[in-house]
Amino acid sequence: MASQAPEISAADALQLRRQLDWKDAFWASSGVPAGVLLTMGGIATVIGQPSWVIWIASIFMGFIQCFVYAEIAGLYPNKSGGASIYGAAAWLPYGKFIAPISVWCNWLAWSPVLVLGSSLAAGYALSSLFAADAVIRTWQIQLMDLGLIREGLTLRLNAVSIIGAAFLLLTFFLQHHGAARAASFQKVLGLVCMLPLLLVGLVPLLTGDLPRDHLFPLLPIVRDAAGNIGFGTWDGAGLAVMAGAMFAAGWSTYGFETAVCYTREFRDPAKDTAKAIIAAGVLCIAIFTLVPLAFQASLGLDGLLDPTIYDGTGVAAALARIVGGGAVIGNLVIVMLVLGLLLIVMTSMMGSSRTLYQASADGWLPKYLSRVNQHGSPTAAMWTDLGFNLVLLLASDYFAVLMMSNVCYFIFNFLNLQAGWIHRIDRKGWARPYRCPTWLLALGAVFGFINMVWMGAGADIWGAGTLRNGLLAALLIVPVFAYRHYVQDKGKFPVSEGTADDPFEREVVVPRAGLLPYLALAACAALVWATYTWAGLQS
């Protein structure tokens, strides 16, 4: 007798389904290491030879932070959407308008990965098929001037935006039939795409091709009035540039926290949550350590300063040269890297759409975002992600968009690392499938403040107004949440979609942390202002 698919109740058809284990979430987040392709060139161009040390320091900071996220995710087995959702629950008793900032900032940081990955993949495809002066690569139609936001920023239509849009539609289609099928596809794609990145990282180590003068001295670069490059010192200006490099690297290296976006879809969330994020972290340590080191050892400082390395268009060819093997192997590596970029686009769409879904279910964002299709995919949130990024694809400077969104990401990071100790105080009696060692919890909280130093001192390294624009973007949640909470929900939060086993429904949380969360916020604001002012004096 042919087996029959299990029946799905009407209630189950309207929510995410428990059809994943930790390995599925690991593969669903396996696109994160490809993020090194998006920012490696920019960081190297800004700071020079210390860039490989920046990557190592940043990924180890991210790995320590992930243990905090693993604990707070385990508190809410019936919630999807990632660390920002679990962190928002910690801040809710201390202010209705604080909590949704965490969720909003996380989404604003992750969603632009769709446009960055798809546009860079489109650029790789065009550069491998057409000469630099070919009409298909040079034509564009300007649609709007956005100089008020950032000097030189425009909306325009060109071949990259059109091909990138096609890539976005492809990834949407692949996720339409649910997380389990998408994770299976990403497993295959991940195995194919991580191979060239690991190969690029291992070849110089195995061959011993690590020229010392390409890696040392560990001094930041400086440019004189004529634009000539030289080695600087670790004075105030050098430290400000280092902060900017750590700020940019954190966007990539911290991103594997997306592995906990799928808690609501785990078959056994108590076991799977911590395993997923720690396994993803180990993979990221390997990629983010080896690839920038090999990249820099191969190119040297002169190669790092090539304009095509900064904008990413020359990164694929440079990595192909590291592997060697002629034009055929080089083109094969480029194809794999294009697939790797599509992998990070899929990772971003899966994670960010679930953030929108759960934020809607919890009463932070408009109601329509919590709709799912017959396969259990949050398609309303996915369509919103898609539409937002189709507009971003028209932007003339994707890196500017990335750095503004990174301000939001660091705000989310701070709020959620503090959420670890707030949860520990306010919900000390709740079951914790994974309990982060107290010293790691405290270190994570400290790292939250260190990240604010990177943001305050380093954001505007990537362009004047980056910090200001990022903060304004974070505040856009205020009218959105006010409409949902006071207009749609009449000032009351919706009942949790969880079950009686979910502690969120079992008890009313009494805030016990007192003034500590507010003091943390005040210290954060003062630190950002002080470091921003200090960095301005160094320029």
Radius of gyration, in Å, reads 23 Å
Spell the H/E element sequence: HHHHHHHEEHHHEEHHHHHHHHHHHH
| Percent in helix | 55-70%
Structural class by secondary-structure content: mainly alpha
Total E-strand runs = 4
Q: Quick one: overall form?
A: globular
Residue share in β-strands: under 5%
The main sheet comes to: 2 strands, antiparallel
Low-pLDDT runs: 1-14, 497-506
Strand arrangement, major sheet: 1-2
**Mean pLDDT over the residues:** 81
Please give the alpha-carbon distance between the first and last residues.
75 Å
Number of helical stretches of at least 4 residues? 22
Structure overview:
There is one protein chain. By secondary structure, the chain is mainly alpha-helical. It has 22 helices and four strands. It has a two-stranded antiparallel ribbon. Strands 3-4 form a two-stranded antiparallel ribbon. Strand 3 and strand 4 form a beta hairpin. Mean pLDDT is 81; it is low at 1-14 and 497-506.
